[in-house]
Design goal:
47% of the residues lie in helices and 19% in strands. It has 462 residues and is of the alpha/beta class. The chain has a 6-stranded parallel β-sheet with strand order 8-5-3-2-1-12, with helices on both faces. It is elongated. It starts with a helix and ends in a 5-residue tail after the last strand.
Length: 462
């Protein structure tokens, strides 16, 4: 009956997973005159990096002409900022970073993103600058090794897009700040606009070109259309009629909110600390639950610190959730199933960060791979479990008279022919079939009469 229940549960899980895998089809593409709108509002973290990756993937599937990233940020993590800069530079879609709405700021990490964009735009009353790196405590980093590295990073990206390298250096070296008028005059940005529609209208008079300089390195320029005849361009991206483009707004889902929560340095540190304490308490108290909660807190804390990636953490949480639910079949205490369900929910939220995920092929492939891997693991686990149960049922009974027949015991009182032996840790009255056996010698149980065991001597000595 127990094997039947396990096989039935295994069958249900595999059918559910197979049905889900078959349903993961990408949406129909709608290429045409469209643009993608993405909003970064707040600190730049690892969650922001994941959001940008997914948004641009959606943009590629829909073959958008331009991605406009509206930006209002006080800065962010160095690793996340550098990763997003690389994503911008490697993007097949032109990236326009728009410091918006009016009075918004793109300080520190925001200015780095602005410099890495193909088109840099600011709204009225906005501010950029203050790019010197700081410690997590807020104190500025003064080591020349780091300062020079960030100066070079800023200058290189400014050069790649034909912007003012001196201003780029001063953003880091002297923490200067600029408004839109000053940034435009100093060739730090290309346009000033107060909303997306006016930005698109102005872009219609320009084209984005890729060209090589005298050293043979590539660079990007946003040039008026009437100047294109004077330039030898490798690639020209026209923005004709872009003001009529369909606007596709990227909508982050609850998964991005969860990631933003976890990537908060304070939250991740608290989760690690709580996880260690709860795990310690759980290991030193009877029962189940506390140690599992501690492990989950530790996993979430490591995710927030960037030590575990989103894909890896999803696999860990899914696997842990399945194991806890399986363990519930044996313990029947209720708590394990509840914690396992929480693990599955959190893993699912992190795996499906946006309601638009079906548009993005790479996300559906990642989902297939993770769920396929987890389903193979679950199937293998259940197969081993069923095999072990079946094998155990084939064994002879390990208690009662059958367990004694054939057992080897030690004589504790001379058998002449009756005496006493110790077998399986218990003392029994015994009688030897023939002859006598001295104390300390070994005997083999060959039968039983009432509470007396029938034995015969064996050659082996202790």
């Amino acid at each position: 009956m127990e094997i039947y229940r396990l096989n039935k549960l295994l069958f249900i899980i595999l059918i559910t997973l197979a049905t889900f895998l078959g349903s993961l089809n990408t949406s129909i593409q709608h290429p045409g005159n469209s643009i993608l709108l993405v909003n970064i509002n707040g600190e730049i973290t690892g969650a922001t990096t994941n959001m940008i990756k997914e948004a641009l993937g959606i943009g590629e599937i829909n073959q958008v002409r331009l991605a406009i990233v509206t930006l209002n940020t006080p800065g962010g993590e160095v690793t996340a900022v550098k990763e997003i800069m690389d994503i911008f530079e490697q993007s097949n879609i032109p990236i326009c970073v728009f410091v918006y709405p009016p009075t918004a700021t793109a300080w520190s990490g925001g200015t780095y993103l602005l410099m890495a964009s193909h088109i840099a735009v600011m709204a009225s009353g906005t501010t950029i600058g203050s790019c010197q790196p700081v410690y997590s405590t807020g104190e500025p980093i003064d080591y020349s090794k780091y300062i020079n590295a960030f100066i070079a990073l800023m200058r290189d990206h400014a050069r790649l897009h034909g912007r003012n390298e001196t201003a780029a250096e001063l953003f880091v070296k002297e923490n200067i700040n600029m408004g839109p008028e000053e940034a435009y005059k100093n060739h730090v940005i290309e346009l000033i606009a107060d909303d997306v529609n006016s930005l698109l209208a102005k872009l219609e008079d320009y084209s984005l070109i890729q060209m090589t300089n005298v050293y043979g390195t590539l660079s990007w320029r946003l040039l008026p259309n009437d100047e294109l005849s004077n330039v030898k361009a490798i690639r020209i991206i026209s923005f004709e009629d872009i003001s009529k483009a369909e606007k596709i707004e990227y909508t982050p889902g609850i998964g991005i909110a969860v990631q933003n929560f976890l990537y908060n340095p304070l939250i991740s540190s608290l989760l690690l600390t709580l996880g260690l304490f709860i795990l310690f308490i759980g290991l030193h108290t009877p029962g189940y639950g506390a140690e599992i909660v501690g492990v989950i807190c530790l996993i979430l804390g490591l995710i927030g610190l960037g030590a575990i990636g989103i894909t890896t953490s999803s696999i860990i949480l899914f696997t842990l959730g399945f194991l806890l639910i399986i363990a519930e079949l044996k313990t029947h205490i209720g708590l394990l199933a509840m914690i396992g369900s929480v693990c599955l929910v959190i893993g699912g939220l992190m795996l499906f960060p946006s309601p638009q995920w079906l548009l993005y092929y790479e996300i559906t492939e990642r989902i297939r791979q993770i769920i396929l891997g987890v389903s193979i693991f679950v199937a293998a686990f259940f197969s081993i479990l069923v095999y072990k149960i079946a094998k155990a049922r084939k064994r002879r009974i390990a208690t009662g008279e059958e367990a004694l027949i054939g057992a080897i015991g030690k004589v504790t009182r001379n058998l002449n022919p009756k005496g006493e032996i110790r077998v399986h840790g218990e003392y029994w009255q015994a009688m030897v079939e023939e002859g006598s056996v001295k104390k300390g010698e070994l005997v083999k149980v060959v039968g039983r009469v009432g509470m007396t065991l029938i034995v015969k001597p064996v050659e082996e000595k202790v």
